[in-house]
Write a structure and sequence with these properties.
GO molecular function: 4 iron, 4 sulfur cluster binding; metal ion binding; RNA methyltransferase activity
Number of strands: 12
Pfam families: Radical_SAM (PF04055)
CATH architecture of the largest domain: Alpha-Beta Barrel
Cofactor: [4Fe-4S] cluster
CATH topology of the largest domain: TIM Barrel
Strand order of the largest sheet: 1-2-3-4-7-8-9-10-11-12
Subcellular location: Cytoplasm
CATH superfamily of the largest domain: Aldolase class I
Keywords: 4Fe-4S, Cytoplasm, Iron, Iron-sulfur, Metal-binding, Methyltransferase, rRNA processing, S-adenosyl-L-methionine, Transferase
Helix content: 25-40%
Number of domains: 2
């Protein structure tokens, strides 16, 4: 199968009206300054943060430590509603739920909430669309609409935490335990908003959700400058590198950013991140039939990774409707795993969820947009 030539799109195509500012767009210190600028005592910001991050409350009338006549006004100014639920679709007996959100300007993004026996994970979007243009990805083919604000990103996470606490998934009330930046968009192309969101996740209550950095995964297709900045942050999140092939020739077409930073440079940056943080990084590898699933590519990948502190996460491709890209044969997948393991490289095959609910990133948003056009 011939892989088409792909052009990169780095810039947002149009200037759009920015979303309203939200408590989650600011650091704890900045929140208090914002409160004072609004004519409020600084401690009001801490009170609202407590309701938002600790109690997951979106009903200002329950904020009993704030005067009743001030609650709605303060909520409107500090926690404006940034995302509105369009629809939710579920599968896997209700343990997988995809939410489609509409933003203030009508843009659609997705998040996926997944309950396992030992954890609950939300996969969230950091951009509306994506400019990386990977040809097998529904989001990449849609192109980049715009970056999300830290508030818009954090709202997806808080909504997921609230759903868990309210017992909206089978099994009763639980706690959101893991956040992965693997939804729509390239997280490191929206660096500042993503890092503010990461701090909102990891800062202790009441300034954040108090979730361990070890439970947060930030993915990238290989923006080396972003990995280098992340290395200096001092927050030991899990870094996931979407490699998808061990050879530059194919990666130039599967992951077009490779023409700017090649595999050697990406792995060197990931190694530096691992050395600084002590955190093993993940190699994401979508297995695509007859494209990147050959045994010689598994052998080359094993040789590349055998002495590195990394783990390979093989992903059976979740095909998009009408696409020529499809998942590998089971026997090819098994041989790929066997060869990697022969090099002592840790490898798992991701549990595929959501195929019957447009599970691949961008599919639900694309379908909804087509319906409204």
């Amino acid at each position: 199968m011939t892989v088409p030539e792909i052009k990169l799109v780095f810039d947002e195509p149009v200037q759009r009206k920015k979303p309203p500012k939200h408590l989650a767009d600011y650091s704890p210190e900045e929140r208090r300054e914002v409160a004072k600028a609004l004519g409020l005592p600084a401690f009001r910001a801490t009170q609202v943060a407590t309701h938002y991050f600790s109690h997951l409350s979106d009903d200002p009338q329950s904020w009993s430590d704030i005067p009743a006549e001030m609650r709605q006004s303060i909520a409107d100014q500090l926690t404006p509603r940034l995302i509105h639920l369009v629809k939710s679709v579920s599968c896997d007996a209700g343990t997988t739920r995809k939410d489609l959100w509409k933003l203030h300007d009508g843009v659609l993004v997705e998040s996926v909430l997944m309950r396992y026996t030992d954890r609950v994970t939300v996969c969230i979007s950091s951009q509306a669309g994506c400019g990386m243009n990977c040809p097998f990805c529904a989001t990449g083919q849609a192109g980049l609409t715009r970056n999300l604000s830290a508030g818009e990103i954090t709202e997806q996470i808080v909504a997921a935490a609230r759903a868990c606490a309210n017992g909206e998934l089978p099994g009763g009330p639980t706690r959101l335990s893991n956040i992965v930046f693997m939804g729509m968009g390239e997280p490191l192309a929206n660096y500042n908003a993503v890092m503010r969101s990461v701090r909102n996740i990891t800062d202790p209550n009441p300034d954040g959700l108090g979730i361990s950095a070890r439970s947060v995964t930030v993915s990238t297709v290989g923006l080396v400058n972003g990995i280098e900045k992340l290395t200096e942050e001092g927050i030991a999140v899990t870094l996931a590198v979407s490699l998808h092939t061990p050879d530059d020739e194919l990666r130039d077409t599967l992951v077009p950013i490779n023409s700017r930073w090649n595999i050697k440079e990406v792995l060197a940056a990931a190694d530096a991140y691992e050395k600084r943080t002590g955190r093993r990084y993940s190699i994401e590898y979508a297995l695509i039939r007859d494209i990147n699933d050959q045994s010689w590519r598994s052998d080359l990948l094993g040789r590349l990774l055998k002495n590195r502190n990394t783990h390979v996460n093989l992903i059976p491709l979740n095909p998009t409707p009408g696409s020529k890209w499809t998942a590998s044969r089971r026997e090819d997948e098994a041989e790929f795993v066997r060869i990697l393991e022969s090099y002592g490289v840790p490898v798992t095959v991701r549990d595929t969820r959501g195929r019957e609910i447009d599970g691949a990133c961008g599919q639900l948003a694309a379908a909804e947009k087509t319906k409204s056009d």
